Amino acid sequence: MNIAVLGTGSVGSTIGSKLIELGHNVMMGSRTANNEKAIAWVGKQADKAATGTFADAASFGQIIINCTAGTATMEVLKLAGETNIAGKVLIDISNPLDFSKGFPPSLSSVNTHSLAEEIQKTFPTVEVVKALNTMWAGLMVNPSLINSGDHSTFICGNDPEAKSITTQLLKSFGWDEKNILDLGDISKARGLEMYLPLWLSIYGATKSGAFNIKIVS
Amino acid sequence: MNIAVLGTGSVGSTIGSKLIELGHNVMMGSRTANNEKAIAWVGKQADKAATGTFADAASFGQIIINCTAGTATMEVLKLAGETNIAGKVLIDISNPLDFSKGFPPSLSSVNTHSLAEEIQKTFPTVEVVKALNTMWAGLMVNPSLINSGDHSTFICGNDPEAKSITTQLLKSFGWDEKNILDLGDISKARGLEMYLPLWLSIYGATKSGAFNIKIVS
């Protein structure tokens, strides 16, 4: 499948490399077609990797994965172009963390809003699914790194088919279907994004990002 | 020990009854000394239970446990009286859930603020510890109900001695010390309170409140 990865940070490069390992063709999108980090990422891959502008990548991808910083996401999606993302599944991994006042960050969308809802409202034909934003990038594509892969991940979105496609992708990353919890419609992204301050506190207390939560009952 | 439980809801009555079972003397505080729910709660207990106003209870307790609705907490603590709570450990279990616009609730303190911080700021001599707000009341005092008791609970607060007292209390409730994670100072209550929307979403998806999260690494 042709997949667009928007963003050149650790999440984008980790997700992109995993997708290539799984046999997909990936274009990493950034503000400029000659972004150094994107070119370095392509250099490490087989012929299945490419780089381009956000619009190039969005046009290329049958699925779009948003790995940009949450505070930049809305601008990035406008640069990607409404016609290039229309009707496509957009998996939103971003977190609206605002570091402008230092650490810890606050959330730029919060409480009665979420970034994923804002994306869905701004681009109503896009099928937005929130996923994977609740953990360190290394675990997203390699859950077996901890606790034999037995821990929880969440999805939410308005379109059942888009959530099914996302679930298949997560399973291909190594997630056991029993650990993928569908929380419901896209408004459930509020809880997923508002979990980040607790994630940051746990990270601060344990000095390691290689942890996740497992729902037990 | 003499302990004040502020609030007559399911959290207050559950915590109060457990404390009595453990041999403590408990006064349940409410707005009026003759609150029907408080009297009914006392009626079920041995001679170690009493009821009174918030001020009566706060004066009685060597430790204060706030089990009120978060949106009422600041008013309740003013009714309890600054002199009655001064210098004492206050364990804050409340969540600032605002249901005034229906379900799901929003948070009345959020992002750059938390209710626990507001309590600490308003009553600087009180030793505030946030604890137990991240789960259903039944699990707070009986963690072995699920997963053989192996799941996570969190504390935060500015005073190490107050956190040590809270940890001892949690251990007496059945919590294994390895599952009690100290997140740091009282500002970490932001993450603990902002977890509630995710808790509510998981509750909605699984149709049961008898779950918790376990940190795995």
Structural class of chain A: alpha/beta
Uncertain runs of chain A are none
The largest chain-to-chain contact, stated as pair and per-chain residue counts, equals:
A-B, 42 and 43 residues
Q: Mind telling me the C-alpha Rg of chain A?
A: 16 Å
Number of helices of chain A: 10
CATH topology of chain A: Rossmann fold
The count of β-strands of chain A is 11
* N→C terminal distance of chain A: 37 Å
Note the main sheet of chain A: 8 strands, mixed
Oligomer: homodimer
At CATH level 2, the architecture of chain A is: 3-Layer(aba) Sandwich
CATH superfamily of chain A: NAD(P)-binding Rossmann-like Domain
Number of domains of chain A: 1
What level of helicity do the residues of chain A show? 25-40%
The fraction of residues in strands of chain A falls at 15-25%
**Globular, elongated, flat, extended or rod-shaped: what is the shape of chain A?**
globular
CATH class of chain A reads Alpha Beta
What is the element string of chain A, with H for helices and E for strands? EHEHEHEHHEEEHEHEHEHHE
Helix-strand blueprint:
The structure is a homodimer of 217-residue chains.
Chain A: E1 2-6, H1 10-21, E2 25-30, H2 36-43, E3 49-53, H3 54-60, E4 63-66, H4 70-80, H5 82-85, E5 89-92, E6 97-98, E7 106-107, H6 115-122, E8 127-131, H7 137-140, E9 153-157, H8 160-172, E10 180-182, H9 189-194, H10 196-206, E11 212-216
Parallel strand pairs in A: 1-2, 1-4, 2-3, 4-5, 5-8, 9-10
Antiparallel strand pairs in A: 6-7, 8-9
